[in-house]
Fold these 2 entries.
Entry 1:
Amino acid sequence: GALWMCIVLNPHCKLEQKASWLKQLKKWNSVDVCPWEDGNHGNELPNLTNALPQGANANQENMGQCRSLEYQHLPAHKFLEEGESYLTLAVEVALIGLGQQRIMPDGLYAQEKVCRNEEQLISKLQEIELDDTLVKIFRKQAVFLLEAGPYSGLGEVVHRESVPMHTFAKYLFTSLLPHDAELAYKTALRAMRLLVLESTAPSGDMSRPHHIASVVPNRYPRWFTLSHIESQQCELASTMLTAAKGDVRRLETVLESIQKNIHSSSHIFKLAQDAFKIATLMDSLPDITLLKVSLELGLQ
């Protein structure tokens, strides 16, 4: 949209060109999904938004292509190109939408909707059995999201008030773990952050009262769903602890991530309990490293 705005507002363009663009844009606007690059395939495009189970958008602006997802009613395995089907394309669109960085909206209803819609979409994705083709898509998207710029919620740098990726990362982690454990952990560890709770040194002269008034609201935005978000963060950490049993290096990495990113004492205590339970399962000898993790978290 921004790119088209630049093109259309070009002062050196002739009226005929603008009329032609308007006609083309109107034609594309009548298609349910974005057209192919040469613009000549409008009538051949499948409706990707109907290629997954019914879900919803994590927010209205950034997950529009994920809005209505109903894969049972399409010939999901009709192949478009080699290795591509309506189902694979729809899954990829859903992963792109879920991984986009988006600012937490204002208001209780809008914030609850963000959580609810994301969870609904993920629950529908969980109904799909991953084959080799879909696993490749998951790998590709996970790598892309980790390396992408500011559009990605799993990028190296995100806005302090962007919606956390804990729920999505837990799904990616469990999906990727049997196929690419290194990528699974890298994705989950990147998603553990919860920047809205990080203390930041305010700028300006704090000795004057009017500066304090202007800074404090920005430091503590009103996240009505914060307790739910923190519980999702805790679930992600617990999932990693369970998977890392017996792997000293990974357990230490997960412990460091918990100590750095989780700010709730009750959730840290719950993770200490989880680690102890996982370490002392009846069918095996106690995992010493996990017991140490449990002790460290308990002390913290």
Entry 2:
Amino acid sequence: SKLTSLGQLEMTWRSRCHFHPLLVRVLHKSRLRYYGKPEKKRDMPYQAYFEVADGSGMTSMVLWNSLCPEWYNSLKVGTVLLLEQYAIKASYPFKTQPTPGDSQMKRFATIEISLNVRDPPTKISIIPEEMVKPEWGLPEVKYRFITRSELDGLPNNHSCDVIGLVTFVGRAERARKREHGEDFWLYRWAHAIDGTSDQPFILELFATSQPDVFERIHPMTYLVCTQMRVVRDLTENPSSTIYLTTSNESQIFITGGPKGQPYTKDTKVKNFIQWTKTQSEADQLKKTVIGGYYPFPRPPNNFLKY
């Protein structure tokens, strides 16, 4: 059928109400957001957004309400979609932005694709990867993997992807979202090594919309975390308190998870897998720890400084 592109949509969307089908690849996926309030009677007040791209560039796609429980888990990073009967809206200016793996890609920041159950009822089709044709010109998923030896040189809030062998995982902890609110964030600390440094990656992993993975992080599993943000304490000794925290678009993967992820083609991931083959499992197991209280960043050594 006659397709349109994101570039054409950005130029013509205000003057039309019906759009040709669109073929895109999912490049980023946000966590699922619940926006229900007691006084508003909505059946399924959910929202999730994705960054999708074709040969002309990248834009945001928003999945609304009852489409979320139906489609959220099926729409993975790398999935190719055929979209029909969607709406185009002016983009919401205050949402978080993932850092694209391909810095050259054009971004259409003024529009977003809106997928709803009605007005109009969107039709979503997933195209299996083996049926995707090169002539469609869809971009590949690109990553920004770093090694542990590169981490110390990165600035605060820098976005990156990491892979490592888990040596420590803490218990799940809670932090209040707002000082007097009743909502909590759930998170846990983990350490992962990649053989490029004596120091591990220190990872603050918030429970994203992947509860199954969050529960199954154990020592000796391979852990991949995407769209992580560098946090460094710029006041004291900067190198001692550098860690990585999840962002709204972070995805977490562990060994035994879905095969054929797009990141398996990345050079740094291949190098890490090669390194793990040279390690003795028994030696690494002796160094692993699980559970317990993990105060981080650590308090100062003496009480006066504290």
